Amino acid sequence: MNLFSFVECAERTQSQKALFDLLVSCTSEEGFTEVAYGALTFPEPLRLPGCPPPLVAMKVPPEWWRRYLERKYYTLDPVVRRTPMFAGPFLWDELAKEHRLQACEQRVLREAREAGLKNGVSVPLFGPSGRISVISFASRFDDADPQRNVKHLNALAWQFHTAFAEIARPSDSGSNRVSLSEREKDCLRWVAEGKSSWEIGKILNVSENTVNFHMKNAIRKLGTANRTHGLVKAIRLGLIEFAEPALATPMVA
Q1: Are residues 10 and 116 in the same domain?
Q2: Are the C-beta atoms of 87 and 68 separated by less than 8 Å?
């Protein structure tokens, strides 16, 4: 399921549990069957039953779920502790290699892997007033490749996070008055295709700085945290559609 299809399904969902189940179903198609969503720096008002703060929703093997709660691993989990240090998605293996984790943090990661949570990747989600959330994905398979899937998982995480917030606190109709220029829409459409600013510049025959200028304007107008969040909101507001002519434009060499 691509991002646009996920958006269509999410827009018809009014239950946070159904929305979370949709996310799990979508990521499972890529081998990432285990998913956890947490609100780290604020009391999220909507939580699935049995989820203590900072967890909001979680789908993992039952044995690991019980151990995680009984031993209060959410107070030791290095993903929970260290998410605020990252500006974008990070792999659990990199977290263990690049940071001096405490023995208790290493234990949580080791036991999680033994319980079937392998090749983990987490996506920090930043909001207004210092709000930080995180969505983590893991696989039961040794050969899953989080690096190959990280861009798609990042986009799905932001889409889920945005949709979840709308269920909890419905947006006012004034948000629909956002207006983007055609060039800003073009840039966002190519972001949906996974293109970098340099690649978008080549496609649109403009400089990389010009692309970044349009992207910053779009992000500001949409009131979002980054280009992925901006893309998600633009799609939800109907400002960008999947079958646009720009998406068929050949890349300039």
Answers
A1: yes
A2: no
Residue 253, in any domain of the structure: no
Are both 77 and 110 inside the same structural domain?
A: yes
pTM, entire model: 0.72
**AA letter at 90:** F
| Whether residue 36 is found in the same domain as residue 112 | yes
Inter-residue contact 205 to 251 (CB < 8 Å): no
Amino acid at 8: E
Residue 92 near residue 79, CB atoms below 8 Å: yes
CATH code of residue 140? 3.30.450.80
pLDDT tens digits for the chain (253 residues)?
Answer: 677 788 788 888 878 889 999 999 999 998 999 999 998 887 766 778 778 788 899 999 999 999 999 999 999 999 999 998 898 999 999 888 888 899 999 999 999 999 999 999 999 998 777 788 999 999 999 988 988 889 889 989 998 998 888 876 655 444 457 888 989 988 988 888 878 999 999 999 999 999 999 989 988 888 887 888 888 788 777 788 754 334 333 333 3
Q: Is there a contact between 35 and 23 (Cβ–Cβ < 8 Å)? A: yes
Rg (alpha carbons) of the chain, rounded to whole number: 19
CB 231 within 8 A of CB 188: yes
* Structural contact between residues 91 and 121, judged by C-beta atoms closer than 8 angstroms: yes
